[in-house]
Amino acid sequence: MSTRTTVIALSLGLSALSAFAADQSSVEKSILFKDGSTVHQFKGGKMAMEKKFGRAVRMDSGTSMQTADGKSIVMVGDEVARLDIALKTHQRR
To answer: What is the pLDDT of residues 4-30, one digit of tens each?
Structure first.
C-alpha cells in the first residue's frame, strides 16, 4: 500500500471515530420535570431538554423551569444537537 493511500485511510478512519465521541457519558445529571420532560446537564454546565416521548427539543437559554420536586432551575445553553446525537446513539444499542 502506498503512503498516500495509508494517509487517506487513516484520515477517514479518525474522522469517523469523532462521530462516536458524543454519547451519554458526557451527561453529568438528568432532572425530571412535572410534565414528564427531562433536562440533561452536560459536563461544563450546559443543558438540553428532552420531551417525555424521548425527543430532543429547543429551549431558550435563561428560561426558568419547575422540577418535579418543586425546585426552580434556569436553562443554561441549548445543546439540542448534542443531546440528539446522545439519544440516537443510546437507541441503537
So the answer is: 676 565 555 544 434 444 445 688 999
Domain around 88: 22-92
Length of the chain: 93
- Sheet with 47-50, strands from edge to edge, namely 27-32, 38-42, 47-50, 56-57
Residue 79 sits in a domain whose CATH number is 2.40.10.300
Q: Is the pTM of this model over 0.70?
A: no
The enclosing H or E element of 84 equals: helix 80-92
Residue 35, all three cell numbers = 410534565
Distances (CA, A) of 73 to 9, 17, 30, 76, 91: 47, 35, 12, 9, 28
